[in-house]
Amino acid sequence: MDSPFMNRVAQGVAASGVRVVRFEFPYMQRRRASGKRGAPDVAPVLMQHFREMIDQHGAGRKLVIGGKSMGGRIASMVADVAGVLGLVCLGYPFHPPGQAAKTRTKHLESLRTPTLILQGTRDSFGGPDDVRRYKLSPAIHVEWLEDGDHSFKPRARSGHTEADNLRTAIALVADFIASL
Asked: Is the pLDDT of residue 38 over 90?
Protein backbone atom coordinates (compact mmCIF):
# COMPACT_ATOMS: atom_id res chain seq x y z
CA MET A 1 0.00 0.00 0.00
CA ASP A 2 2.97 2.30 0.41
CA SER A 3 5.09 1.34 -2.58
CA PRO A 4 6.50 4.28 -4.55
CA PHE A 5 3.93 3.54 -7.29
CA MET A 6 0.98 3.55 -4.86
CA ASN A 7 2.29 6.64 -3.05
CA ARG A 8 2.58 8.58 -6.30
CA VAL A 9 -0.85 7.56 -7.59
CA ALA A 10 -2.59 8.11 -4.25
CA GLN A 11 -1.01 11.54 -3.79
CA GLY A 12 -1.80 12.55 -7.36
CA VAL A 13 -5.44 11.48 -7.18
CA ALA A 14 -5.83 13.10 -3.75
CA ALA A 15 -4.42 16.35 -5.19
CA SER A 16 -7.40 16.39 -7.56
CA GLY A 17 -9.72 16.64 -4.56
CA VAL A 18 -10.56 12.96 -4.16
CA ARG A 19 -10.30 11.37 -0.72
CA VAL A 20 -8.03 8.35 -1.05
CA VAL A 21 -7.97 5.49 1.47
CA ARG A 22 -5.43 2.68 1.26
CA PHE A 23 -5.31 -0.60 3.16
CA GLU A 24 -3.42 -3.85 3.17
CA PHE A 25 -4.83 -7.32 2.83
CA PRO A 26 -4.21 -9.63 5.83
CA TYR A 27 -1.34 -11.50 4.13
CA MET A 28 0.47 -8.21 3.49
CA GLN A 29 -0.06 -7.18 7.10
CA ARG A 30 1.53 -10.48 8.15
CA ARG A 31 4.45 -9.93 5.77
CA ARG A 32 5.03 -6.45 7.18
CA ALA A 33 4.90 -7.71 10.77
CA SER A 34 7.07 -10.80 10.28
CA GLY A 35 9.38 -9.65 7.50
CA LYS A 36 8.75 -13.00 5.80
CA ARG A 37 7.10 -13.58 2.46
CA GLY A 38 3.99 -15.68 2.43
CA ALA A 39 1.40 -16.64 -0.11
CA PRO A 40 -1.61 -14.39 -0.56
CA ASP A 41 -4.79 -15.36 1.20
CA VAL A 42 -7.40 -17.17 -0.88
CA ALA A 43 -9.82 -15.04 -2.89
CA PRO A 44 -12.79 -15.39 -0.46
CA VAL A 45 -10.64 -14.04 2.41
CA LEU A 46 -9.40 -11.15 0.25
CA MET A 47 -12.93 -10.37 -0.93
CA GLN A 48 -14.28 -10.39 2.63
CA HIS A 49 -11.52 -8.04 3.77
CA PHE A 50 -12.26 -5.69 0.86
CA ARG A 51 -15.99 -5.68 1.75
CA GLU A 52 -15.10 -4.85 5.36
CA MET A 53 -12.99 -1.90 4.18
CA ILE A 54 -15.90 -0.70 2.01
CA ASP A 55 -18.23 -0.87 5.00
CA GLN A 56 -15.75 1.03 7.18
CA HIS A 57 -15.30 3.85 4.68
CA GLY A 58 -18.75 4.87 3.60
CA ALA A 59 -20.22 1.85 1.87
CA GLY A 60 -21.88 1.51 -1.45
CA ARG A 61 -22.76 4.30 -3.82
CA LYS A 62 -20.47 6.83 -2.12
CA LEU A 63 -17.28 5.01 -3.08
CA VAL A 64 -15.07 4.36 -6.04
CA ILE A 65 -12.91 1.36 -5.24
CA GLY A 66 -9.92 -0.15 -6.91
CA GLY A 67 -6.42 -1.35 -6.60
CA LYS A 68 -3.18 -2.32 -8.23
CA SER A 69 -2.93 -5.71 -9.88
CA MET A 70 -4.48 -8.33 -7.57
CA GLY A 71 -6.05 -5.55 -5.47
CA GLY A 72 -7.88 -4.34 -8.58
CA ARG A 73 -8.91 -7.88 -9.44
CA ILE A 74 -10.37 -8.43 -5.97
CA ALA A 75 -12.07 -5.02 -6.14
CA SER A 76 -13.63 -6.05 -9.46
CA MET A 77 -14.97 -9.21 -7.82
CA VAL A 78 -16.80 -7.29 -5.06
CA ALA A 79 -17.80 -4.08 -6.89
CA ASP A 80 -21.26 -5.12 -8.12
CA VAL A 81 -22.30 -6.77 -4.85
CA ALA A 82 -21.02 -3.81 -2.83
CA GLY A 83 -22.97 -1.42 -5.05
CA VAL A 84 -20.08 1.04 -5.41
CA LEU A 85 -20.15 4.07 -7.67
CA GLY A 86 -17.16 3.01 -9.73
CA LEU A 87 -14.07 0.85 -10.03
CA VAL A 88 -10.47 1.66 -11.00
CA CYS A 89 -7.96 -1.09 -11.76
CA LEU A 90 -4.30 -0.17 -12.15
CA GLY A 91 -2.53 -2.90 -14.10
CA TYR A 92 -5.24 -5.57 -14.13
CA PRO A 93 -3.86 -9.15 -14.06
CA PHE A 94 -5.83 -10.50 -17.02
CA HIS A 95 -3.66 -13.65 -16.97
CA PRO A 96 -0.42 -14.83 -15.34
CA PRO A 97 2.70 -13.71 -17.27
CA GLY A 98 3.45 -16.10 -20.10
CA GLN A 99 0.13 -17.93 -19.62
CA ALA A 100 -2.32 -16.02 -21.80
CA ALA A 101 -4.70 -18.99 -21.90
CA LYS A 102 -5.25 -18.83 -18.10
CA THR A 103 -7.53 -15.81 -18.12
CA ARG A 104 -9.00 -14.08 -15.08
CA THR A 105 -11.79 -12.41 -17.00
CA LYS A 106 -15.02 -14.41 -16.69
CA HIS A 107 -16.55 -12.06 -14.10
CA LEU A 108 -15.57 -9.05 -16.23
CA GLU A 109 -18.01 -10.14 -18.93
CA SER A 110 -21.03 -9.21 -16.79
CA LEU A 111 -19.59 -6.46 -14.56
CA ARG A 112 -22.17 -3.66 -14.13
CA THR A 113 -20.08 -1.16 -12.17
CA PRO A 114 -18.58 1.64 -14.30
CA THR A 115 -14.93 0.61 -14.57
CA LEU A 116 -11.66 2.15 -15.69
CA ILE A 117 -8.76 -0.20 -16.30
CA LEU A 118 -5.36 1.39 -16.86
CA GLN A 119 -2.89 -0.94 -18.52
CA GLY A 120 0.61 -0.59 -19.92
CA THR A 121 0.95 -1.62 -23.56
CA ARG A 122 3.81 -3.97 -22.52
CA ASP A 123 2.03 -5.40 -19.48
CA SER A 124 2.97 -9.08 -19.19
CA PHE A 125 -0.36 -9.68 -17.42
CA GLY A 126 -2.29 -8.59 -20.52
CA GLY A 127 -1.34 -6.35 -23.41
CA PRO A 128 -3.51 -4.90 -26.17
CA ASP A 129 -3.44 -8.04 -28.33
CA ASP A 130 -4.62 -10.17 -25.40
CA VAL A 131 -7.26 -7.79 -24.10
CA ARG A 132 -8.71 -7.12 -27.54
CA ARG A 133 -9.77 -10.80 -27.68
CA TYR A 134 -11.60 -10.80 -24.34
CA LYS A 135 -15.31 -10.34 -23.97
CA LEU A 136 -15.54 -7.44 -21.51
CA SER A 137 -18.65 -5.75 -20.18
CA PRO A 138 -19.63 -2.46 -21.84
CA ALA A 139 -19.23 -0.92 -18.35
CA ILE A 140 -15.45 -1.37 -18.70
CA HIS A 141 -13.23 1.21 -20.33
CA VAL A 142 -9.57 0.32 -20.89
CA GLU A 143 -6.94 3.04 -21.33
CA TRP A 144 -3.44 2.15 -22.50
CA LEU A 145 -0.24 3.74 -21.22
CA GLU A 146 2.37 3.79 -23.96
CA ASP A 147 5.20 1.31 -23.59
CA GLY A 148 4.28 0.81 -19.92
CA ASP A 149 4.88 -2.43 -18.08
CA HIS A 150 2.66 -3.72 -15.25
CA SER A 151 3.56 -0.61 -13.22
CA PHE A 152 3.36 1.67 -16.28
CA LYS A 153 7.16 2.02 -16.51
CA PRO A 154 8.33 2.38 -20.12
CA ARG A 155 11.68 1.42 -21.60
CA ALA A 156 14.18 4.30 -21.72
CA ARG A 157 14.46 4.06 -25.51
CA SER A 158 10.69 4.46 -25.96
CA GLY A 159 10.71 8.22 -25.62
CA HIS A 160 8.17 7.96 -22.80
CA THR A 161 8.90 8.38 -19.11
CA GLU A 162 7.52 6.72 -16.04
CA ALA A 163 6.63 10.16 -14.66
CA ASP A 164 4.65 10.98 -17.80
CA ASN A 165 2.77 7.67 -17.69
CA LEU A 166 1.96 8.17 -14.00
CA ARG A 167 0.75 11.74 -14.65
CA THR A 168 -1.45 10.41 -17.45
CA ALA A 169 -2.78 7.63 -15.21
CA ILE A 170 -3.57 10.06 -12.40
CA ALA A 171 -5.37 12.42 -14.77
CA LEU A 172 -7.40 9.56 -16.24
CA VAL A 173 -8.41 8.35 -12.78
CA ALA A 174 -9.38 11.86 -11.64
CA ASP A 175 -11.39 12.47 -14.83
CA PHE A 176 -13.12 9.09 -14.51
CA ILE A 177 -14.13 9.75 -10.91
CA ALA A 178 -15.33 13.27 -11.77
CA SER A 179 -17.50 11.80 -14.54
CA LEU A 180 -19.43 9.48 -12.19
From this structure: no
